[in-house]
């Protein structure tokens, strides 16, 4: 009798090569461990890749979003609109700086913020929207731009998952007033923990750079030595972390091309399985596939069965209104029934996706998914 085949396919695998290990060792041996020239090199390379005028490395996307709200002078008495179906950080940063988070529903098919719901939620107190390019799926920036102009509000994009995504051939990071990316290990480029703020506004970039350096004057113009111009904090990204990111950034084009290739292969393998629905994305955009998500009925059972078979699958993200933190908080308002967000939460399943995933492994994933989905049909 032949031994049973043991499947072991993780959800993600950070891209860590010998080149990265060598670069980290080089930093460790240099003794220059805090933010320094490697962080600067990482910022410059990312700036060239994204095509943005200013790129600042920070400790996380969460702290990056907080800094973006602060530079736009948003605070007590102001309202900021955020989607319900997202990671909690998107909304939490708003009460953290003393403003009110107004949570609206998403589109059931794309899982992205519902543009009509944004307009319904705008009041004279609305200062900004934080739309999310969820899972790397680019937003409709034409719609967002029209809303921004009509109401005179800012757009801070939570682009945590969207390094490499594009809208009309332009990289995400250039469409919003300020865009913030995450460098968490689930993300396309990781530094362990970390974040990136991108903007084309020099004044804001200078203020944010000072704020993340304890409020220091970063122009280097002071004759008396270091000057502190504003009350700031420490959100610096160390040379060690930047070394990890830099080694990935050197291969960013191939890494992204591989993700897109693998995602397209999943789409191809799923084409004859009508029980599995693929979320929609714009025809004039490029999804960066930080996560490859599908919609299925009875998601929790399917997830458990696939995990039991050795395939690590996951939920998509969270429906904020279902969590205590966002209920009955004086600085959070849930606008509407969140029907679509709840549906997305209950139906989304994330499939394994990482650089050295093979087509053969993808076939195994889809075979098990198909069998789990068809089992549901025979039970019903
Ligand atoms: C949409 C979204 N926003 C914000 C965050 C928070 O990012 P970070 O862990 O870098 O603070 C995440 C992390 O998963 C995210 O997915």
Please characterize this protein's 3D structure.
By secondary structure, this protein is an alpha/beta fold. The chain has one domain: Type I PLP-dependent aspartate aminotransferase-like (Major domain) (Aspartate Aminotransferase, domain 2, 3-Layer(aba) Sandwich). The protein has helices spanning 18-30, 37-50, 61-71, 89-96, 115-121, 141-151, 202-212, 239-249, 252-269, 299-308, 339-347, 359-379; strands spanning 54-58, 79-83, 100-104, 126-129, 154-158, 166-167, 170-171, 178-182, 195-199, 285-286, 292-295, 332-334, 348-351. It has an 8-stranded mixed sheet with strand order 1-9-8-5-4-2-3-12, sandwiched between helices. The chain has a 3-stranded antiparallel sheet with strand order 7-6-10, with no helix packed on it. A two-stranded antiparallel sheet has the order 11-13. Helix 1 (18-30) runs antiparallel to helix 8 (239-249) and helix 9 packs parallel to helix 12 (359-379). The model has no long low-confidence stretch (mean pLDDT 96). Bound molecules: pyridoxal-5'-phosphate (PLP). Residues 60-62, 86-87, 89-90, 132, 158, 160-161, 182, 184, 186, 195 line the site of pyridoxal-5'-phosphate.
